[in-house]
Amino acid sequence: MEIQVSEQSGILIALCSGRFTFVDNQHFRQFLKRIELNNTAHTIRLECEKIDFIDSAALGMLLILHDLAQEKGIRVMLCGAQGQFQRMIEISKFDLLFIIEPLMRHG
Amino acid sequence: MANPASYSMYDSVILIVDDDEDDRALVMESLARAGFNNVLQAHSLSHCLELLEVHRPEMILTEMILPDGADTRLIEQITSACNTFSPVLIALTGMAHPGQRVEWFRAGIVDLLLKPLFTDEFIIKIEMHLQRQTAYQMLARYHERVSAELAAARHMQHALLPDDAMLTALTQSHGLHINGLFLPTAEMAGDLWGIIPCDNNQLAIYSCDVVGHGVAAAIQSFRIHAMLRELSSLAAHPSHLLCTLNHKLCDLFERGQFATFFYGVFNTDNHTLTYVSAGAPSPLHISHEQQQIISLNSAGLPLGIRRNQEYISQIIPFFSQDTLLLYSDALIENDHCDEARLMEWVDDYLQYGVAQTGQNLKDYILKTLATPYMPTLEDDLTVISVVAS
Question: Are the C-beta atoms of residues B259 and B295 closer than 8 Å to each other?
């Protein structure tokens, strides 16, 4: 999975794309490290529209993100999830942990 | 070889094969001066082969032209005499054409030292090869030991699952034909399924998948199995059981770890299935009477994440000839099968498989559903079917 991170007015935006799986473990931990060191963000927006697939190990990584953000008082939004990722969020009831922003269909 | 912790490469057994007594003496002396204290010598190929019947040297240094053997044939005879171990084989030679050297390397030597030997370079090369050989052997032994331990652990994991005798007995006692397929990957994983008889009319079935791969996930599945035994008094109460199990797992799991779980109680008296799910893949209820496939709502926060999470049970009718199909996510998360393909399979099942029970059904599922995906499995695959009599 590719992650491109930027920050605007206290909102950390992570543009995610590709398959989010166990192999992204190290990669995602670098992202977590960045959050750990961040003292300005109040919100993290994970832009998930381009995530094609997520496995259970990657859901575990989202849980770590959730716990870390909670410790720092940051809210986490999962935005635009679709397809298999959306189904995984629904079946795992991740709306209990994250703010879910549905995909905005244009036109 | 001795205990690796106390092993020194200078204890390695080295066999020198050379018909020239002076050359042999020079090599012996150089090795002795460097500290090697386990050096054997052979004056011919036949002498070398005799020694290899009783010794297992870590290294063989051989002249390539001996009175009773030479060139690639010599290498082949030495390597075939070492069929139960793998010494480092090094050629000693006064001359060799480049093409000939290539043939020797292809036949099995790992290095070639030209005579006359330069002692310092000779010893450095011997040490280098022995260090590499020692590291390789230690790694091979470690790999062998871990493989054996993993095989034993997989066997233990299998032993937790219901066996055929239990399934047959439950068919007679509760009128439910239950079949389970558990196809583990080479490494261990966290899949687990089981049956808990509650009373004469009620029977619980569960399927669990601890996130992640490897021994850590498997150990957690062992713990869950033990916890379920402790909670057997709650076996007929899915909601209460899952809430209690979740509470315990929240204490046990590390951050980021969780388990998906399905737990269902079949009541053969009033023909119902009361189930609760914590994010397990949607079970399929195949209604025989209505010839309909219903994907059950299995949404729920996986276990081990939030301590006071509620899990509310749901009740559905489960009549004679109805089927419930449970499966782990490996079935629909591979390159060859997804949820749409699974539904196609269920359509076929309604046409051909629904009349099957017992071993026939197990074979049918294995042949048509599980086997095609086995080569690409990256996770354990569990498929469980329950058919009411």
Answer: no
From the list A22, A56, A93, the residue facing B300 with the nearest CB is A93
pLDDT in tens, B282-327: 999 989 888 888 999 999 999 999 988 999 999 999 999 899 999 8
Q: Which of B195, B335, B201 is nearest to B264 (CA)?
A: B195
* pTM of the full structure: 0.77
| B281, B338 contact by CB (below 8 A) | no
Closest approach of B276 to chain A, Cα-based (Å): 13
Task: State the average pLDDT for chain B.
Answer: 88
Measure the CA–CA gap between B162 and A75, rounded to whole angstroms: 44
Q: What is the mean pLDDT of residues A23-31?
A: 87
Report which of residues B7 and B235 the model is more confident about: B235
B283 touches chain A (CB under 8 A): no
Q: Tokens representing B253?
A: 């799991």
Amino acid at B382: T
- Single-letter amino acid, residue B293: I
- DSSP-derived 3-state class of residue A41: coil
B143/B140 Cα distance (integer angstroms) = 5
Phi, psi (rounded to 5 degrees) for B302: -55, 160
Nearest residue on chain A to B309, judged by CA atoms? A96
Q: Contacts of residue B333 in chain A, CB cutoff 8 Å?
A: 53, 55
Residues 6+ apart with CB under 8 A from B270: none
Instruction: Look up the ipTM and state it.
Output: 0.82
Of B71, B83, B133, nearest to B107 (Cα)?
B71
CB-based contact B301 A22, cutoff 8 Å: no
- ω into residue B116 within 30 of 0, thus cis? yes
